[in-house]
Write a structure and sequence with these properties.
The structure is a single chain. With 244 residues, this protein is an alpha/beta fold. It folds into two domains: 1-81 and 159-244, Rossmann fold (3-Layer(aba) Sandwich), CATH 3.40.50; 86-156, no CATH class. The protein has ten helices and ten strands. It has a six-stranded mixed beta sheet, with helices on both faces. The chain has a four-stranded antiparallel beta sheet with strand order 2-1-4-5. Helix 4 (97-107) packs across helix 5 and helix 5 crosses helix 6 (141-153). The longest helix is centred in the middle third of the chain and has 14 residues, at 112-125. It is globular, with a radius of gyration of 18 Å. The N and C termini lie far apart (38 Å). The relative contact order is 0.18. Bound molecules: adenosine-5'-diphosphate and magnesium ion.
Amino acid sequence: MKNGANMKLQICQLCKKYGSKVALDHFSFDFECGVYGIIGANGAGKTTLMNLITDNVKRDSGQILWDGRDILDLGKKFRAVVGYMPQQSGVYGEYSAREFLRYIAELKEIPRKKAKGQIEELLNIVNLKEVAHKKLGGFSGGMKQRVLLAQALLGEPKLLILDEPTAGLDPKERLRLRNYIIELSKDRIVFLTTHIISDIESTANEILLMKNGQLIKHGAPQALIAEVCGKNLDDVYMAYLGDD
Ligand SMILES: Nc1ncnc2c1ncn2[C@@H]1O[C@H](COP(=O)(O)OP(=O)(O)O)[C@@H](O)[C@H]1O
Ligand SMILES: [Mg+2]
């Protein structure tokens, strides 16, 4: 496990309300190297959790520590280790895929020469090399999704946060992405939300089940399945979240 020693994200009693609506309710968990699959019905608080970790939304209370230091104190240093693929995003339609990645690399302050190599490598990985010069405005949903994934991977982030990364991908693309995520997770923390539960079963080391902003259950996929005497994660979902 490379670089695993100094890589730990600790979330402690994290809370967020929107008006009177509790979106995240005293969420606590420690994350180390590996893939964490976050499952929950719409409105369970998955995106809120990710927005808080990426500091796109202000928390009400609680702590988020990276290697023991609060991410708000780390500021730019923390942002440099995070790659975020948002659930929905206005991708700049007038940019070509390559231009868009260059632009994000600049925002991330990746040195130009390094960025150039990475961009070409990532375009290959997400299978967009051929259309890299074309404007994003004309891309299909799945192609935009792959551009968003590529931008999240720029700068070799230690913490990769993917909100519904497989949405809009066809089965072949989903399989490719799944295998790639497994490869990536060897030396980083990967968070993944999805409503396609079968995607997570073979990818995640640990599953977190969320309901009403709370973490209600977690464990390795096979352990959770055994606990409910189920066949697959769908059975786990039904057992804990079935009435959602
Ligand atoms: N910007 C917002 N303003 C008001 N309510 C919000 C906002 N974002 C999320 N919520 C509410 O917080 C709860 C959790 O939402 P969210 O984190 O998006 O859930 P999930 O990603 O699991 O579907 C929901 O009840 C949602 O309506
Ligand atoms: Mg969401």
